[in-house]
Amino acid sequence: MLLLLVQTIVFSQQFTKFTQYTYNTTYINPAYAGTNGVLTLDVQQRNQWVGIKGAPTTKIVALTSPLGENLGGGLSVYRDDIGPVSGSLIATDMSYNLPLSKELWFSFGVKAGMYVFSIDRNKLNIEFPGDFPNINNRYSPIMGLGTYLYSKKWYVGVSTPNILEGVYYVNRNKVSDVVKANNLYLTTGYTFKLIESVMYKPSIFVGYSSGVPLFVDIASNFIYYNKVVIGTSYKVGVAVSGVVALKFLEKLWLGYSYDYGITALTNYNNGSHEVFLRFEFVKKVRGKVNPRFF
Fold this sequence. Notes:
By secondary structure, the chain is mainly beta.
């Protein structure tokens, strides 16, 4: 487990890949902020590899809203814990939305914030503690960029949540650095009306980070009466997932997903669980993308 943690710390430090990322797209792409035309509060929690001590847990709270005819904004707070490693992030997002036609829009966004990184060696069994000092609240700025092309039925987004690299730890022998690796994301999806009461939305999420395998998530969701979502996704070579979401009182979404791993680690854990809550505070203010779908 320690080797897994060290590899994670040194090479990836990636943003967590949520199964239900379409309900909090601003987290990975600042250009999405405000494009759904409604003031929205999103809360998500992901518990990965349940049953393994020190397994990753991630929490995020995000508030997004249109800020006028062409502007959007957001504020998010993020917390990630992996064994002795913890990371917190607070970030703001700003987007500018440009209409290309009556049915097509292009958005550009910027993310800015501060990432706080810590390692508690007391959570590890270390033979020579002096060679592995604690890291307490090491701060590093982040800056992300994103683009988002969308209509009422489809979207394509390209983004990087952080273009900066920060050194958090260099050991005494100058052997290894802990850095925040850059991530490049591609998201796309399309909504089809099958019959009057049923819609179908396939989507793809591709994530690239240096030093780790390419991440590909292929999802398939059915939307019933605009109130019930049932779907599946396949994280290539990693896991298969089931998703269900329900809408209450025309403003509140609740959702749950379960990931069943297909790697060797599957024999030692009970899968990954994820829950989300979305609350829409006001009515839709402009005829753009329906937030029920993306």
